[in-house]
Amino acid sequence: MFLFDVLQRTYTVVFPPTAPKNDDAIRIGLLGASKIAPFVVVNPAKSHPDVIVAAVAARDIERAKKYAKTHGIPIVHASYQELIDDPAIDAVYVALPNGMHYEWALRSIHAGKHVLLEKPSCSNAIEAKKLFNHPLTTAKNAPVLLEAFHYQFHPGFQTFLSEVRKSPGAIKNVRAEFHLSPGILGSEDIRFRYALGGGCMMDAGTYPLSIARQILGREKILEPIDVRYRGVQPGKDGRVGEPQIDEAMEATYRTAESVNVHVSGDLLHKGKWPSFFPASWTRALPSFKWPKASVTFEPVLVDMPNGEDNNSSQHFVQRTLTMWNPLIPTFYHRIDISDEHTLRQGDHVTKTWNETKYKTAYNWPEGDRRAAVYKDWWTSYRCQLEEFVNRVKGREGSGVWIDGAESIAQMEVIDRTYEKAGLKPRPTSTFEL
Ligand SMILES: NC(=O)C1=CN([C@@H]2O[C@H](COP(=O)(O)OP(=O)(O)OC[C@H]3O[C@@H](n4cnc5c(N)ncnc54)[C@H](OP(=O)(O)O)[C@@H]3O)[C@@H](O)[C@H]2O)C=CC1
Ligand SMILES: O=C1OC[C@@H](O)[C@H](O)[C@H]1O
After folding, report:
1. The CATH homologous superfamily of the domain defined by 2-151+378-421
2. pTM (2 decimals)?
3. Around Cβ 241, how many Cβ atoms within 10 Å?
4. Ligand 2: which of 151, 154, 203, 379 to mutate, most ligand atoms within 8 Å of CB?
5. pLDDT tens readout for residues 309-361
6. Whose CA is nearest to atom 10 of ligand 2?
C-alpha cells in the first residue's frame, strides 16, 4: 500500500489532471527560460483552473521560442521588459539569478503585475528592505508579491510546525540541513557566481535557515556564533572558483533564549559514506542525504506512568521532533515524534525508555475545510500556486503566507552569516525606481 501510494502520487505529479480554465484565469508570464519554471509554475498550472502560463521571455528569443514550444506557452517576448509591459499578462514568475530578483520584481510591480519571486527574495537585506518597503509594494491595492518558499505551503510542513507548537518543554536545539548531490548543478551554474547572488547560503542553505526560523518563530533573532564554509577550489570540476563563493556552509546560531541552531547546506555533497569504506575511496564520490529538520525540547516533569507509582520518583520526558524530507514532501516525508522517558530518584536514573510515533500529512486533517480543496498528490509548488492565486483573487486561502517582513528578516540573517564567515554579503543592485 505504501509503495502504491508513493507511485500513485508521483504519477499524478508528473501527469496531473488538466483543469478547464476559467474566463478570468490569471495569465502568468515567465521571466527567463529557467530550468525550475516547469516544476514551480508550468506543471502545477495544468491542474489549476485559474492559471494560464501565457508567456515567456528570454535573453535569446530563439531560446524562448524553443522553450515556449516545449511547454506549450503561446506568447514569446524578446526581452523581460517587453513581457512585463504586455497588458495581456497579469502576473510574473521571476526565476532569474538571485542578483536580478530585486530589479525585476520591482520593475514588474511597477508595471502592475503580481509577482511570484524565487527564493532568496533578493541579494541581501538592503535590497529586500527596498523591495518590500517600496511605496509601490506597500500601497493599498499593490500587486501581490510572494517569496517562493514553497515548502511552507505543504500541509506536511505545517503539520510538523503544529507538532512543534504543541510539544511539551521549551525548544533547546534546532538542526536543519539540505545537501545537494553532485551532478545536479553544472560547472557554469548561477550558484557559483558572486555577481549573480550565488553561494550555498543563498541556495541550498537558505532552506534549512528558513526552516529553523519557522520553527523558532520569526521574532527570534539568530546570532551566528560559528560559521564555516567550503570554498570552490579553482579548476576543480571545471568551476571558476570565485573567492566569495561558499560551495557548502555550516552555521551555528544562538538566540537570546539560548537556543542552539545548527544549519547546514551543501551544493556538492561528497564523500559522506559509511566508515567501513576507506575514506580514500569515497572522498570524491557523490553522496546522498535526505533533507531533514529536527527540534529537541528541554525535558519536562510529567505525571508518573501507570504501574510506576513511586512517590519518591520523578518522571521526565524529553521530546525530539524530526521531519524527513520537508522540501519535496509529496513523494514521501515522515514526522517522527520521539519521547525519551526517564524515571529519577534524586540524581539517580532508575529507568529509561523511548516511545516514537510517526506521522505523515499529504493533506490537511480530515474535516478541515482545506482538505476538501487540496489533493494528496499536490507538490509544495502546487500548494504555493494555490495560495498565490487565492491572494491575487482575494480569497480566504489556507492561512499560510510569507510576508515582506519575513523575507527581509531571512535576508538579514543570511547577511550576518556571510559576515561571520568572513565573506561579503552578496552585492547590492544599483537599480532604483
Ligand atoms: N523553488 C525551487 O525549488 C527552486 C528555486 N530556484 C531558484 O530559481 C532561480 C533560477 O534558478 P534555475 O532555474 O536553477 O536557474 P537557471 O540558470 O535555469 O535559470 C536562470 C535564468 O536566469 C536568466 N538569466 C538572466 N541573466 C542571466 C545571467 N547573467 N546568467 C545566467 N542566467 C541568466 C536565464 O534566462 P534566459 O532564459 O533569459 O537566458 C535563465 O533562464 C534562482 O533564484 C534559484 O534560487 C532554483 C531551483 C529550485
Ligand atoms: O529546491 C531547490 O533545490 C536545488 C537548489 O539548487 C535550488 O535552488 C533549490 O530551490
Report:
1. NAD(P)-binding Rossmann-like Domain (3.40.50.720)
2. 0.96
3. 15
4. 203
5. 667 789 999 999 999 999 999 999 999 999 999 999 988 999 999 999 999 99
6. 203
